[in-house]
Fold:
Amino acid sequence: MSYRGLTAALATQHGKQRAIAPAFAKALGLAVEVPCGIDTDALGTFTGETARPGTMREAARSKARLGMAAAGLPLGIASEGSFGPHPFMPFLAAGREMLVFIDDTRGIEVVEEALSEKTNFAALDLTPGADVAGFLTRTGFPSHALVLRSGGRITKGIDSHAELGRLLAAAPEGARLETDMRAHVNPTRMAEIGKLARRLVHRIATPCPACGTPGFGVIRSEAGLPCADCNTPTTLVRNLVSGCARCSHENRQPRSDGREAASPAECPECNP
Ligand SMILES: [Zn+2]
Ligand SMILES: [Zn+2]
Structure:
């Protein structure tokens, strides 16, 4: 069951081993190797020159497999991120991060994902009067790099005032500044990937109570938290369901914050 002393391939061109390797070393004794000569950008870029095929999970899986093939290892890790308006609070930006761990010796795939408002994801159209200074402050420039899109050209990894000034002076009308979401030039994103890596290794270190396979953890939630007044099931989460990466064993536990009832304001009967 142990991964101690083994090595997993991590396909990244953006230094993600800085955020991911320490968690794997500490919790599992599993080393991380970044194979050379792989092109993860071929599987999609944030700046859109290459569209990402399929779902985030499919993209992460392909990336992990690319690394495993290049390194000749049966263990692989990959990360995917996606950024846009928050699904529940559209005026906020949010980042969705996913980490996938593949173990071909056991035939399992273990996934962890998170949605976070901790992102600098933003864009600014360079119209006359645009608040460039405010944008730079808000996005954490220059510790967080920017992308300039002007005409058909995309300049990535802009991380100095001198370079930015030069590019802006030459930028045509209709140009646009965007945050660079690649992990090695975006410390906020790198930190979020590190957090997710700690959750993933915790999941990998948790064996299935039925078959002992690594990777047991929460796989979905169930709605139906009852109304405190009339007991009607609401759309609020009632239970968390944990599942195995290999067998069909599941167990159900109450939501983790200890809340046992929904308020009547959240009830379809009391507050239709
Ligand atoms: Zn009610
Ligand atoms: Zn199992």
Summary: The mean pLDDT is 93. Helices lie at 17-28, 56-71, 132-139, 161-170, 187-204. The chain has five helices and twelve strands. Residues 208, 210-211, 213, 244, 246-247, 249 surround zinc ion (ligand 2) (CB under 6 Å).
